[in-house]
Amino acid sequence: MARLTQTQLNRLSKNFEERTPDEMLRWAKDIFGDRVAAISAMQKSGSVMCHMISRLELDIPVLFVDTGVMFQETLETRDRISRDYGLTVRTLHPELTMVEQTEKMGVLYMSVEGQEECCHMRKVEPLLKTKGDYDALIGSLRRADGGRRGVCPLLAVDIEMNTVRINPMANFTDEQMAAYLAEQDVIINPLHDQGYTTIGCNRCTTPVLPHEPKRAGRWRHLGTAAAYCGINPTDMSDGESEAIDLPQDLVDRILGQKTDFMI
Ligand code: SF4
């Protein structure tokens, strides 16, 4: 095994800043093969990412965390994307149903501390159960979404999952997103047309008003105390001094030291 540090990935990311999402996705498949998966919450940017994976015929599975309290529209979007795009969608579930959790621990999501615990049990832990299955996870984070995502890296280490996190759409602007949606027949969660700019669990997501920030509808009942669920580690930490362990030949391929792979 060999160490792969965030500092090494930062250097690589700089070289990739001009790459398109298509190029980044092809790179991910070429480098990680069957050991890469995408993760989507079936929001707009995740749908665009799924469309790209399908259009490029990359045969990359998609992970979807069903917290048990998702909007019906989100579940239907997942099913349509799986069927119409021919993608393998692997749905992950928490250990407890929301009823079991509430009986045991009360209504967690109504307090700041409880929200962290609830998101960890219902979102982070189901993903952690896949640890070891993949060396890389592709997400659909975009800098244009602002907040902590305003600086999200193209490549990051995920210590808890021991994977590389790849954000091929980090540089995808709102204008590029609008153009892609206009040109391609992308399946979009219908809640986006009902004022929901971002979409999570039905307990903790509301529509937003036109003058509000995009993420104002997430955990609105908790004020400004909560903004992210923790399933994307770069939302929670700058990761500067972090590292993961991967096979030596894979680390060499990622860093371009034993391959003539060129985009
Ligand atoms: S978004 Fe709300 S209901 Fe969903 S896991 Fe987090 S705290 Fe729980």
TrEMBL record:
Q: What class of enzyme is it?
A: oxidoreductase
- Tell me the keywords, alphabetical order: Cytoplasm, Iron, Iron-sulfur, Metal-binding, Oxidoreductase
Cofactor mode of binding and number, as noted = Binds 1 [4Fe-4S] cluster per subunit.
Q: Where is the active site?
A: 229
The terms under GO molecular function for this entry are: 4 iron, 4 sulfur cluster binding; adenylyl-sulfate reductase (thioredoxin) activity; metal ion binding; phosphoadenylyl-sulfate reductase (thioredoxin) activity
Name assigned to this protein: Adenosine 5'-phosphosulfate reductase
Function per UniProt: Catalyzes the formation of sulfite from adenosine 5'-phosphosulfate (APS) using thioredoxin as an electron donor.
Instruction: Please tell me one Gene Ontology term that the record gives under cellular component.
Output: cytoplasm
Q: Does the keyword Iron apply?
A: yes
| Pfam families the record matches | PAPS_reduct
The record lists the lineage as:
Bacteria, Pseudomonadati, Planctomycetota, Planctomycetia, Planctomycetales
Compartments in which it is found: Cytoplasm
Q: Which SUPFAM superfamilies match?
A: Adenine nucleotide alpha hydrolases-like
Q: What is its EC number?
A: 1.8.4.10
* Family according to the record: Belongs to the PAPS reductase family. CysH subfamily.
Q: Where is the Phosphoadenosine phosphosulphate reductase domain?
A: 40-207
Q: Which organism is it from?
A: Thalassoglobus neptunius
* Pathway this chain belongs to: Sulfur metabolism; hydrogen sulfide biosynthesis; sulfite from sulfate
